[in-house]
Amino acid sequence: MADAQKNRQVLLVSRPEGEASTDNFRLVETPLLPLREGELRVRNHYLSLDPYMRGRMSDAKSYAAPQALNEVMIGGTVGEVVESRNPKFKVGDNVVGMYGWQEYGTSDGTGLYAVDTTHVPLSAYLGPVGMPGVTAWYGLNRIIEPKAGDTVAVSAASGAVGSVVGQLAKAAGCRVIGIAGGAEKCRYVVETLGFDACIDYKAGHLYDELKAAAPDDIDGYFENVGGEVLDAVLPRMNAHGRIALCGMISGYDGKPLPLQAPRILLTQRLKLQGFIVSEHMELWPQALKELGERVATKKLIYRETIAQGLENAPEAFLGLLRGKNFGKQLVKLI
Amino acid sequence: MADAQKNRQVLLVSRPEGEASTDNFRLVETPLLPLREGELRVRNHYLSLDPYMRGRMSDAKSYAAPQALNEVMIGGTVGEVVESRNPKFKVGDNVVGMYGWQEYGTSDGTGLYAVDTTHVPLSAYLGPVGMPGVTAWYGLNRIIEPKAGDTVAVSAASGAVGSVVGQLAKAAGCRVIGIAGGAEKCRYVVETLGFDACIDYKAGHLYDELKAAAPDDIDGYFENVGGEVLDAVLPRMNAHGRIALCGMISGYDGKPLPLQAPRILLTQRLKLQGFIVSEHMELWPQALKELGERVATKKLIYRETIAQGLENAPEAFLGLLRGKNFGKQLVKLI
Fold first, then answer.
1. 3-class state of residue B79 by DSSP
2. What was the ipTM of the complex prediction?
3. CATH number (domain holding residue B233)
4. Residue A59 is part of which domain span?
5. In Å, how far is B279's CA from the nearest CA of chain A?
């Protein structure tokens, strides 16, 4: 009899103090046990790496329980069913799930759903037609609620969420200003994604360039970054502006960053709303349908940075926290 | 022929740099000119002093144009019509208007409205049945939207706005926590206004006392103060909490105060909304009707601090900015 097949997994083994590091993770091999009745097994093809994972590594009060130590890191995955004792799934099905940082997922199928890869590539279900896409859709349509002619700004504009925010806002008839880190990302945001302007916050003139790029000021802002970027945008908001607070990645990996001039929220009568898209599951079908159609018809463009092999997931994740990725950060597992 | 009757007025003559001072104001006497057709004249009985006036003294970007220099300071007034060439108003009418810091108001009646003082004292139309009351009503009902059983907190709890917020929230079935400056104000808030608890922020244990007073944390917060009070409340907000941002008086008279941990807005998915009640005039009739009935039936209790004489208005206003008033700050002009 052959050896039992092996699964490779990445566990969280310690919590970061300050910056996260590769020492917080450990790669282990575990045997794959035979399926029980009702279970199925998926060979994961891609793992999604997302900023929210940094929050789970800490045990500070947040919207979700912290990731347990010495367990497989949480994460979205897409893959193919390779074995099934569950009547709802058959071998060969392409599925989206939350199997985490591992090569195989075994479960009773809860939370797993099959997807059609005829017109939409499998990996896109972790990006524009997955959680990041729905995040963009929700924050834009339910918090910013843009009207044609509004100016909408978005930070991390070349990223998995920001790129979708801007393209949807353009489709809604808005003037769209991106904020991204570096000239290359900014060029992509304008030339490929079709934003009206993109400002390289690393160039150090964010406030002045915002003023030039948004002469009528900003009606809606989709925030992924926080910190000095939010401080620069706030004074450029129009009265009754809406800010969808999706992420504050600039403060994830260390001390919390203050907001310098909160009084503007009052003087401009702004609405600022934090959200997490998993609390709005009732809207996912509508959002995914629209996003899937846009990707299938090439109206929604996206870009991926793909790390090869589970063993490189920690390094890729740390790079994501520093903005080293360009577009959606994935790990190819096969 | 007798001398023309005199009006006394307080003008803004300079803008504060840092703290406002009495030097920013000047008391002048001007003659009262004969009325033209369509005009009326009001002898103002009370002038309202309100924190928003500090904003108008500066020329920073805000929701309203700055107060012009060398003109009568803006302000709400109540008084009696003493002369009328306007068919809509007759001598003896009690009226509410915006005649500013002066003893007499002369106008064509635009923005002026007559009120019934049978069951509601005239001065209350500058407090619980006026702009401060509607401010409380709007922020509570339209932004916080409390449900029975919610915990609602309010800063400047003994003030013209805060006292109404808390009493309306109690009537809506909420647990209500006040924050005020000093033991005397806190005693009044609990014993007279009927709040469940009141914390003296000057005692220096705001965060810990909030935790004790609101064991189920806070669902709705009505903010009049900002600064360290907001910093202490924010970590005690429940998920999906709502913050009505009405004022940030702690930062009005100097440097803007940062918000130390804005990330909580994200992790707790809070909604924070700034507002100014004059942008919601369509709701005033409904709010004033409810507030008037509550005052007339003694279900809504209020307190006034009354300075005597226009010449004392600047000093009283500076005291208001430092929390020296207890309840609604008025100036009696007659």
1. strand
2. 0.89
3. 3.40.50.720
4. 6-127+302-332
5. 10
